[in-house]
Amino acid sequence: MKQAHTFVTQLKLTLVVFGDPFNPIDFTKDIGVEPSDSWLKGDLIDTYMELRKGKSMQKRKESAWEYSIGFISSLDFSELTLQFERIFEGKTGAIKKYVENNQLEVTVNAVIEIANGETPSLNLSKEFISFIHDLGAELDFDLYLLEDE
User: Fold this and answer.
1) Domain range summary for the chain, segments of one domain joined by +
2) Rounded Cα gap, residues 98 and 34, in angstroms
């Protein structure tokens, strides 16, 4: 008998700075926040599916620095946005200056996995909207509905 998955509603928020040319190590030193992940243009993307299919590995098309608050089980998106505001408090100016001086792009990615019909609140505070605006960032929402089979 196949065991059913038990999904829970989860939220994740990631700040990504990317472009070419871009040195994520210099950026880290400038802003004083260690990334969750970073890579350079030309680095190999070694995903499980590519390895499994025996395909040649793809290369990164640009360098990037990302900071992620990994998935948390919550129905309140503002929990994540408040954490972001605290982590990057006082660093927005340095990030914006670095991004502008190096002609980089900034995006904030929100991933929302909805399970069992538990739809989270997606409130965006004025402070978080100002944070996004001050960085000149785009805000991208990816919504997934998880269902037991």
Assistant:
1) 10-146
2) 16
**Global pTM value:** 0.86
**Buried/exposed code over 10-19 (b: 16+ C-beta within 10 A; e: otherwise):** bbbbbbbbbb
For residue 57, give Cα distances in angstroms to 46, 47, 119: 6, 8, 37
Q: What residues pair up with 69 in beta bridges, in sequence order? A: 13
Instruction: Report d(CA 46, CA 56) in Å as an integer.
Output: 9
User: d(Cα 103, Cα 97) in Å, to the nearest integer?
Assistant: 10
Distances (CA, A) of 104 to 3, 52, 62, 92, 139: 46, 34, 10, 14, 16
Structure tokens at 137: 């960032």
Q: Give the pLDDT of the chain (149 residues) as one tens digit per residue.
A: 455 557 889 999 999 999 999 999 999 999 999 999 999 999 888 765 555 666 667 888 999 999 999 899 999 999 999 999 999 999 999 999 999 999 999 999 999 999 988 889 899 999 999 999 999 999 999 999 987 66
73-88: b or e for each residue (b if 16 or more CB lie within 10 Å)? ebeebbebbeebbeeb
* Other beta carbons within 10 Å of 35: 19
